[in-house]
Amino acid sequence: MKTPRDSSMKPTTPQTSPHEQVTFQIQDIAFGGRGIGRVHQMACFTKGVIDGEIVNARVVRKKPRFLEAELLEIKKKSSHRVEAPCPYFLKCGGCSYQHIDYFHQLTIKEKQLKGALERIGGIKDPPVRTMLPSPKPFEYRNRITVHVRDGALGFFVEKSCEVIPIDSCRIASQEVNSALKKLKSQRPKDGDYLLGERERYGGFRQVNNSMAALMLEAVQGFAIKDHGILLIDAYCGAGFFTHALAPFFSKVVGIEWSKNSVALARREASLHEVFEEGSVEEILPKKLLEASSAETTLILDPPSEGISELVVMAIVNTPPQKIIYVSCNPATLARDIKRLSTHYKLQESTPLDMFPQTAEIESINILTLHGANH
To answer: Per-residue pLDDT averaged across 324-331, rounded?
Structure first.
């Protein structure tokens, strides 16, 4: 007869208390930019570190399943570490990777995209191509939003409404920084101020001009290969993709909820371009019926939340031959690909660095119907 186990004999895990100093190795960089290691068998997240480094940090928050720690000292530095050029780095909520050499940033983001597609999307060995680098790792943003609170003009501290005053932004273009200096000299009232490159700004568009051109070229290449009759551009904004692809299709439909963006899109539309104002959930099911599935290409360029279950249902009920999914969030992309996996296979994923120095990841993903010829 077995005797009950004495609870005092169970192995125990050392406890970590807040404010304790810990030393551990950074094993990986999680999406969002924080390094992750193990402390007393618990995951521990820390900002401003690089995979492979050994660090000393102070525990600042203890959750049931993980710890958060503040970096105190790097005991073993990575060969990829560089001096961050911005004096506000890791103080404002913008950049996450200025301390990492640029090409290692690309390696980290590529790995994060693959990881999300494997872990969340259930795709074994996902077909992710080499990430396209930005021609400008700095001075690329064509617009920024700054905040004025109690006379202080700058960016919000991460996860806070406190403003950190700034003189310039290293990832903003020279034109935008000139606009920032001009605004500061005017001593503006409390509020939020959008500063953009005046010539090219109008409606929603990508923040990185040179990468936007590369993105358009890539999407166009995927769209016109074996193209059909109908192109539907969901979440079309002011028609960034729609206008460029219109010459290759007999009928083009853009769907967008923003009234101002639709007005801008209609102003530049050719005769066979139609722009519908409203939700994709409401309009897409009807538009998918306007041509045979075999002759339809669908572009999805949703916000970071991805597509809703209603949009998934509309697609699987009337499945277009090809989907080009432009994503700015690997987690919601992977979730949506899994939802569509009853009908579609991820043929190819091309990451591109629209937001250097930050944790954001943009990608162009080609989904084709099961059994379709490629």
So the answer is: 97
Over residues 140-163, the mean pLDDT reads 93
Rounded distance, CA 349 to CA 336, Å? Answer: 14
Strand arrangement, sheet containing 21-25: 21-25, 54-62, 66-76, 42-46, 35-39, 28-29
Residue pair 341/315 in contact (Cβ under 8 Å)? The answer is no
Which residue type sits at 270? S
What tens digit of pLDDT does each residue of 193-218 get? 999 987 654 444 689 999 999 999 99
CA proximity to 39, closest of 16, 60, 56: 16
Which has the closest alpha carbon to 107: 83, 133, 84?
133
The C-alpha atoms of residue 334 and residue 179 are separated, in whole angstroms, by 38
Whole-number Å distance between alpha carbons of 241 and 230: 14
Give residue limits of the domains in the chain: 20-76, 119-133+208-369, 143-196
pLDDT at site 198: 76
CATH 3.40.50.150 fits 119-133+208-369, yes or no: yes
**Which of 3.40.50.1370, 6.20.20.10, 2.40.50.140, 3.30.450.40 is the CATH number of 20-76?**
2.40.50.140
Same fold, 20-76 and 119-133+208-369: no
Strands (E), the chain: 21-25, 28-29, 35-39, 42-46, 54-62, 66-76, 143-149, 152-156, 163-165, 191-196, 230-234, 251-256, 273-277, 296-300, 322-327, 344-352, 362-369
Collapse the DSSP code of 79 into the 3-class scheme (helix H, G, I; strand E, B; otherwise coil) and give the result: coil
Round to whole Å and give the CA distance between 324 and 223: 7
Mean pLDDT calculated for residue range 335-345: 97
4 vs 38, more confident: 38
DSSP run (H or E) holding 112: helix 102-119
Residue 363 CB contacts under 8 Å (≥ 6 apart), including other chains:
113, 326, 327, 330, 333, 349, 350, 351, 352
